[in-house]
Amino acid sequence: MLSYEGVTKRYGNVQALKGVTVEFQPSRIHALLGPNGSGKSTLMKMAIGLVKPDSGRVRVDGIDPVEDPISARKIVGYAPEEIVIYESLTPAEYLSFLGYVYTIPKDELETRLKTLIKIFKMDEHMGKLGGELSHGNRRKLLIMSALIHDPKVLILDEPFSGLDPEVARVLKELMRKYAEEGRVVIFSTHILELAEAVADEVTIMHRGEVVAKGPMEELRGKKDLETYFLEVTGLTSELEELLKAL
Amino acid sequence: MSWRRIAEVVAKEAVYRSRKEAGRSLRFFRISGGSMLRYNAFILAVFTLMSSMVGLSAFGGPEVAYPTLIMLFVMEIMMGVLFMALNLQVLVSDKLLDPIFHLPVSESEIRRALLWVCIYWGGAALPFVLIPGAAISSYLLGDPMILVGAIAGSLVALVMSMALGYLAGSLVTNYTRSLRGRAISTLVWLLVLGVGFVMGPLMDAISRLYEGGTIQALYVVPPISFAMMFESLEALSSSLLLTLASYVLLRIGTSRFWRVATKGEVPLPKGPAKWSLSFGFAAALMREVKVATRTPRIFASLIMYSFIFPLAFIFPFFSEGLSQGFPGFLTPLALAVGGLGGFSILYLYIMEAAGAKTLYSLPLTRCRVALVKFYTFLTVNMPVAILIAVALAVLIPTGTISALIYLAALSGSALLNSLIYALLLPKEPSHWSTETFGRTLVAVLFLIEGMAYFAVGIISLFLPNELQATISLITLAAIWIVNSILLTVSGRKAL
């Protein structure tokens, strides 16, 4: 459903992606892991045509986001890691605008927002200006924006950062529900325990390459995720040196 | 940490952010940023050059030199207010003092630093708006007191500009929640941005002041009053009064600004704030209007460059044309006022600032962005535009055609420029500012469009009266043809 085939991307002297070939199947929650600068965000942005590959092919439900980003963005819900919101707009105003952009009928928009506001506990904050929202509530607004059009593919970059435990739990259940409905769900995280708890599949990236991919049960069978992660990314010896310096 | 060091750090950060926010070149900041000397050196050189050239007017005698020095004195205050207001706004809105409060620094030291920061924002260079010109005038007129008076006057002008700057800075900050506060803030920004338009009427007033009497009438006006204070009691009183007023205003301005900077001017709502949803196109329009009106500086710029600037620019030609009996000349002028006004749609793009990054992940074509901006422009500007059109139609015989041409030109030019900007937007998510499009490109676009309207005006001078409206109508038709081509092109391109 979301596939990358021999995708490369270079930013100046930095090779962000080196011929990545990977497929994300529906009905599964995929965790994308990797150290900072490993190419996770670049890969995610390519799904909606925010970043164009230098070579290779990306397909989202049969759509090429480079050729037709508008169609890709209609079926993908994307929440970036960086929190950027309009500080002078209230969540209600911003989400209303998204209703227009995605051409969501009035009744449908009202129903969806009612649910989202309830599960993310945003009722008291819908009339506040973006600039007055806390970090956690800004994150919630970003996630709500990604969900408002009921996307077929959900891509969340570090979605749990700043969320309180209760809402984090709700988000996990929501991701599970989406996957069970046959959608593609991908999220990135640095917290390996979170990946272990939520994901069905794990993809580990390092220096622009996919260094490991497989079902969580399979990886769990080998050793704990942290040890496995450090091994495949070659960070074990580096970590040992850092620990010695303590 | 000494208060001077605090001032240096805060001033540097505020200048950097205000340049970034206004979309000015950060390369210049890297050249000029740093020590107080580097901050002021470039601007000091510019002021000295300008002031010296103006000072040469003293060849025309005191009748020419005195009004010129008065103009320089007013310019010093205006420049100071502009520098201060722009940077103080950033200081408050970005809460630049907050990290300082966490340090073991006394309140008095921070207050002193706050007073000192303006020196870094070009304050040290401000007296050089007046002093070099006065020095040349003093030499040419053989009167050393002119230079002495100018030095005293320029220091008082510096204090006055700081005082007004602090007062303006405390009002022009981001009043995002209070409607009344936003209205005041927009009004103050209009005054700050419109200071340049005051110079013409001011010079007229000075001319009138001594038209009826003698040059002695100018002795009470600063900075001449400072030069004449040992010769005339009125000059002495005027100088002392101005000095006292500047000091009192500075005390009031700094206290008021301190309250705003430390407490924050936007009270958080108690309990849940009211909210409602809007739907369809109204939601898009609402979003644009809300962002525009909640960003007073941008909103003031939109009003300024939609109406005040084009009208002020064209008005002298307009009154000249009418007085010389060219009523037909009115139509090309109406075309130019409308056309230049449409250029200001740029501000509806700039207002997006960092928030623009979010738009890139949405299914938006550039055409859709351009059209929403265009309809927002019409929503915000049409009430005033219709008033101007009605005034044209009612006050001037045969003004109806011109009124219609004005409205068609304003809307046609707004759509044209909106489509051009939408096509020029970066491909990757970015903060939108003037720098996004490139200052040179924006200036070139403005020049090309301005020259096109100017050319239409010139051509129409050689045409019989009955054909003068026709050439304006042909220009309008051309604008709308280009618009339809750009609509097709931008409809195929995603943001």
Give the tags.
heterodimer; A: 246 residues; alpha/beta; Rossmann fold; six-stranded mixed β-sheet; three-stranded antiparallel β-sheet; 10 helices; B: 495 residues; mainly alpha; 2 domains; 22 helices
Summarize the structure.
The complex is a heterodimer of chains A (246) and B (495). Chain A is of the alpha/beta class and 246 residues long.
What does this structure look like?
The complex is a heterodimer of chains A (246) and B (495). Chain A has ten helices and nine strands. Chain A has helices spanning 40-46, 69-75, 91-101, 106-119, 135-147, 165-180, 192-198, 216-222, 225-232, 236-245, and strands spanning 2-11, 14-24, 28-33, 55-60, 76-79, 153-157, 184-188, 201-206, 209-215. Chain A is globular. Chain B has helices at 3-21, 26-32, 36-55, 62-93, 98-101, 107-123, 131-141, 144-171, 179-193, 199-211, 224-227, 233-263, 280-293, 296-323, 330-342, 346-350, 356-359, 366-395, 399-424, 434-437, 439-461, 465-491. With 495 residues, chain B is an all-alpha fold. Chain A binds chain B through residues 48-51, 69-71, 73-74, 78, 80, 82, 84-102, 106, 109-110, 113, 123-129, 131-132, 145, and chain B through 176-177, 266, 268-269, 271-281, 283-284, 286-287, 290-291, 294-295, 354-355, 357-358, 360-365, 428-429, 494.
**Portion of residues in helices of chain B?**
over 70%
Broad shape of chain A? globular
**Biggest protein-protein contact in the assembly:** A-B, 45 and 37 residues
Q: Can you list the strand order of the major beta sheet of chain A?
A: 5-6-7-3-8-9
Number of strands of chain A: 9
List the helices and strands and how they pair.
The complex is a heterodimer of chains A (246) and B (495).
Chain A: E1 2-11, E2 14-24, E3 28-33, H1 40-46, E4 55-60, H2 69-75, E5 76-79, H3 91-101, H4 106-119, H5 135-147, E6 153-157, H6 165-180, E7 184-188, H7 192-198, E8 201-206, E9 209-215, H8 216-222, H9 225-232, H10 236-245
Parallel strand pairs in A: 3-7, 3-8, 5-6, 6-7
Antiparallel strand pairs in A: 1-2, 1-4, 8-9
Chain B: H1 3-21, H2 26-32, H3 36-55, H4 62-93, H5 98-101, H6 107-123, H7 131-141, H8 144-171, H9 179-193, H10 199-211, H11 224-227, H12 233-263, H13 280-293, H14 296-323, H15 330-342, H16 346-350, H17 356-359, H18 366-395, H19 399-424, H20 434-437, H21 439-461, H22 465-491
